[in-house]
Specification:
Elements: H1 2-14, H2 28-37, E1 41-43, H3 56-63, E2 68-71, H4 76-80, E3 85-87, H5 95-107, H6 109-124, H7 128-132
Parallel strand pairs: 1-2, 2-3
């Protein structure tokens, strides 16, 4: 995993000078505000081991009305296939597919609105009220 962390650091260095903001650690309230302001959550999850049994990050983005593009890692297909765009793993070699999906979601207003609306509806089914009921 240290090699992977090094490649992430290299990728972040390549983003210098672009319209990319690295926030670092933030509190829950600031995170929620950022998620609500975001246009898109892109999560190319390609774990070394099975790690994603749910993904609160995806749920939070859906609740914020932020469409999600992710992979088909772990439990994502079972939980989120109807509410996210999922690109099959592996990530490597599919960067152009990711770019096309990102551009499509950000430029097709109807597609974006539909994803946002459906995501909010799904997120409500996971609220404390709905689960408790």
């Amino acid at each position: 995993t240290s090699d992977y962390a090094a490649s992430v650091r290299e990728g972040l260095k390549k983003c210098e000078g672009l319209d990319v903001i690295l926030r670092g650690p933030v509190g829950q309230w600031q995170l929620a505000q950022e998620q609500m302001m975001a246009s898109l959550m892109v999560y190319p999850c390609d774990p070394i081991n099975f790690t994603e049994g749910f993904s609160v990050s995806i749920l939070e983005s859906l609740a914020a009305g932020t469409p999600v593009i992710t992979s088909d890692a772990d439990a994502f297909p079972e939980l989120w296939s109807e509410d996210t765009v999922q690109i099959p793993l592996p990530f490597e070699g599919k960067q152009e597919v990711w770019i096309r999906e990102i551009v499509s979601m950000l430029t097709d207003t109807d597609k974006w609105k539909a994803a946002s609306t459906e995501g909010i509806k799904t997120a409500k089914t996971y609220s404390w009220y709905s689960i408790g009921k």
